[in-house]
Amino acid sequence: MAGSQSSNVDVDGGKKVETHRRPWLKPVKGAVDRKVLAGWEQAADRDSLHTRGARALSPTARQLTPGVTVVLAGAGDRFADTLDGIARQTVDTGLVEVVVVLTDGAGRAAVHDLGAARPALAVRVVTVAGAGLNRAFSLGVAAASRQYVTLVEAGDRLSPNYLEALLAGAGDGVVAAASVVADGEAVDSAADLAVGRLVSTALADRLFRTGVVDEVDGVFWLAAAVHGPAELTTAADAVYHRTAVPARPGTGDFRTEITERLATVVRLERLHADSGSAVGELVTQAVARQAERMGDYLAQHPDQHPEVVKELDRFPVFELPHGLVNRGMPRGLVVAYAFSPYADASAIVMAKRVRNMGGVADVVYNAMDRMRTKDQTVRRISGPFIADEAPVATPTYFSHWGSMEKFVEAGMAEIHKWEAEKGRYEWIYSRAHFAASHLLAAVYKLANPEVRWTAEFSDPLSKDMLDEERGTPVEDGPVLETLRNGAKALGLPIPESSNCFVWCEELTYVLADELIFTNPNQLEYMMSYCSDEKVAATARSKAVVSAHPTLPRDFYSMVDFDYPMSEGLIHLAYFGVFYATRGMDDVLAAVANAPEELRRKLRIHVFTTKPAELDRRAAELGIADCIQVGPYVRFLEFLNLTTKFDCLIVNDAFTADYQPLNPYLPSKWSDYKGSGTSVWGLTEAGSPLNGQKQLAYNSPVGDVEAAGKVLEQLVRDKLAERSSRSA
Prior knowledge:
- This is Glycosyl transferase family 2.
- By secondary structure, this protein is an alpha/beta fold.
- The chain has 4 domains: about 10-240, Alpha-Beta Complex (Spore Coat Polysaccharide Biosynthesis Protein SpsA, Chain A), CATH 3.90.550; about 255-315, no CATH class; about 330-545, Rossmann fold, CATH 3.40.50; about 555-725, Rossmann fold (3-Layer(aba) Sandwich), CATH 3.40.50.2000.
- The strands form 3 sheets. Strands 1, 2, 3, 4, 5, 6, 7, 8, 9 and 10 form a 10-stranded mixed β-sheet that branches. Strands 13-12-11-14-15-16-17 form a 7-stranded parallel β-sheet, with helices on both faces. A 6-stranded parallel β-sheet has the order 20-19-18-21-22-23.
- Helix 20 packs across helix 25.
- The N and C termini lie far apart (about 70 Å).
């Protein structure tokens, strides 16, 4: 560029290496000490882009001069108007440097013309063939030599006062923003753009070098606000005119609209964890915009929902608003009194059911803040299948008709709002550990007899573990009247009992189109105490046995939980409530009875919310040194932990003294199955757990001697496995 202060630097090389300027490339005789290495590093930081890429010109490695570096990047012949606009800026030319990043050779002529017309304007060129726009911008930032940097895409235009206005609002702790206009209208999502901003060059470079950002996109500006920290300010009279025509929503390809947006969300979530409330809201909004664009794509390609879910599972995304992604999908209705994000076993099982069904659904659940904590990570399970959700703030009780009635009324109100917008549902799925789920579903079914209703019973409702009836009386009111009149109109039997759980069970038996039981014993037991043989026969005709789902293997590594364990020992783990009267106590007693040599090889890890009873029992048995109490862990952390031990322990509920057959299958078993770790079951004869072929070890619950034999065998097996691996 004759007559200009410019230089042509090719990142891809092609020029002769000058070893007097790059001493680290020159052969060296003798030793190279730290002093020599330090000198080479300093020289490399002063070097051009020939061999080390644009980041060799790091602004942190030399003195930055006052003013602004305009990084102009793009391809094709779109440079002329943009360069002309830069040349006509009202700011002092001496405060401006232009770094033009060419991804092909088409812009060279326009750059040459600018150099000839405005020789006082400092212009440099970086050529990086085939690079995308974000990569080109990042190289330009690395090559900047002025105190501040702003990005411009070839073909766009700047208002004449653009640079002057942004510089007037600039500062080390400031991200100065211009108004971004496209087709004459302000762009609401300007925060997602790489353009229209000005920031400290040193801060921009630091973000790249520390790995906070790896590309210049909308995340870059938010990262500057979070990690600067920098305040976001607006230069109202500065305007950045976008001339590129935005793609119509949903018209991009899968990689652009799904994969790359998920990668952006990952970076945004990392920022969100470090941000304060003000910037945090901006990050949340940016995540929502990414979700909206993903939803635009999915609305155009609904058949690709399974592929979108698979892609979601690949990314560590926990805060994505799935409702925006799934808003255009056909959907059913899920009613689950307990549902994610609450840390509740029933809620997690239902989340897994939703995933297994595969269809998108709106969900109504109870706001359980009074009795359950939240675990946002479990949204990973069902989130990709949820559109709208309504946590209704009604009183949280297991067995209280008044609270059930309020849940039904509030839930129906939410459903009516959705139906007014989207029409009626074709299917509904409800799950009862909490009976109110089925009662709401029954009311909806009576109003919409054409809907297909699938109802799942996690456990017997109206009978407890001692085979005694439980439940509170139903009470007169609108919900009971609806149920009674609806059943009567259909010629269905009305329960004679006043027990709310009996009403839930028997109305569900006759109204639902499909009934899910978790194991055959549960089905047989619940039918055995049904008050009406015809109702039981009807229930049997539509019953399906389906155990709690096991999540895909990817879920066991979504969260890495760092839990230290002593090397050389055999580590067993138990997760759940500890009872000194059954189950896990068999293991403790067996450890106490074991030879000292075996005990020294064992460590039992117990993850329980109430460890005091465990500590007392271990002290009584004299095995406190063999027991380690683990911390409370969230569900995905629990899944990850299950992969780290030599063996997992699961125990049956003890029912032999009270019930003819054990109707309970621990939900924990479904999680253990997917871990790839050996499992030891302490089981009752004939129980659902006892019949699981995948159990590596099995001993009768309450039989300490049998538990001791399992311990001996387990230690032998695990030591042999280690020996085989080392060989």
